[in-house]
Amino acid sequence: MACTCSHEPAPQKPNSKFRTALWIALIINLTLFFVELVGGAYAHSSALWADSLDFFGDAVNYGISLAVLGASLYWRATVALIKGLTMALFGFVVIGKSAYAYMQGIPPEAMTMGAIGILALIANVIAAVILYAFRDGDANMRSVWLCSRNDAIGNVAVIFAAVGVFGTGSLLPDIIVAVIMATLGLTGGYQVIKKALQERRENKPILNT
Q1: How far is CA 59 from CA 33, 148, 174, 201, 202, in A?
Q2: pLDDT of 65-122, one tens digit each?
Q3: Cβ contacts of residue 113 below 8 Å, gap of 6+?
Q4: 3-state secondary structure of 8
Q5: Does 8 reside within a domain?
Q6: How far are the Cα atoms of 11, 176, 204 from residue 182, in angstroms, in the given order?
Q7: What is the pLDDT of residue 3?
Q8: Total domain count for the chain?
Q9: Closest to 181 in 3D by CA, of 81, 49, 30
Q10: Is residue 6 part of a domain?
Q11: Disulfide engineering: 177 pairs with which of 56, 126, 157, 197, CB 3.0-4.6 Å?
């Protein structure tokens, strides 16, 4: 029994510019994951903790994307589907963590939140600009762009949360931002899953005997 592809063209040669952009994004996300993990624990911030998990998930996703460059569109879409599910799962995890933090009632340390938020924003804007050119590619490329875009939006929200915590002394701004980030994960994951499923249907391999 032999396996042949249906109407899909032969896999294209991996885009060297996209590969370089992925490596840059991978390094940025791994670095910020450790920074926000430590900073979030120190500041008791749900938003920073949630953002650190997002950075880690994105770093893993970028690594997977690098691994499948040059593969057929069907398999790239399969990997994108897994990444979309991961993004959605992240959203549900953050919602659960936010509910737990609310019950604990400990306000975060605003200055640490703000400083790390600004640092993360600068790094993510750089990554988003680099990946912007690939936003209209296949599901795999689009998922990479959405991850970077969501991170930059999340960093802006963390900065606003730090200002809110500093001005009110309440943990609510931190919780609100965490929920916003969870929503970004859910909606972004839905978009990636939808496109990935479509590409899998359109490029499914056919088994010929």
Answers
A1: 9, 10, 24, 27, 28
A2: 777 776 677 777 777 788 788 778 877 877 887 888 788 777 788 888 889 989 988 8
A3: 39, 43, 45, 47, 48, 158, 159, 161, 162, 165, 174
A4: coil
A5: no
A6: 35, 10, 32
A7: 31
A8: 1
A9: 49
A10: no
A11: 157
Those residues whose C-beta lies under 8 Å from the C-beta of residue 143, and which sit 6 or more positions away, are 61, 65, 80, 83, 84, 87, 192, 196
Q: What are phi and psi of 206, to 5 degrees?
A: -110, 130
Position 1 in a domain: no
CA 20 vs CA 15, 41, 69, 103: distances in Å? 9, 32, 12, 44
Reading phi first (left if > 0) and then psi (alpha if -120 to 50, else beta), residue 54 is in alpha
Query: Which pTM does this prediction carry?
Result: 0.65
Structure confidence at residue 47 as a pLDDT band (50, 70, 90): confident
Q: Give the domain range for residue 81.
A: 16-203
Give the residue among 14, 139, 8, 150 at the shortest CA–CA distance from 80.
Answer: 139
Question: What is the predicted pLDDT for the residue at 48?
Answer: 85
CATH number at residue 156: 1.20.1510
Q: What is the pLDDT of residues 165-178, one digit of tens each?
A: 888 888 888 888 88
Q: Is residue 3 part of a domain?
A: no
By three-state DSSP, how is residue 204 classified? coil
Q: What is the pLDDT of residues 184-206, one digit of tens each?
A: 778 878 887 888 888 788 777 66
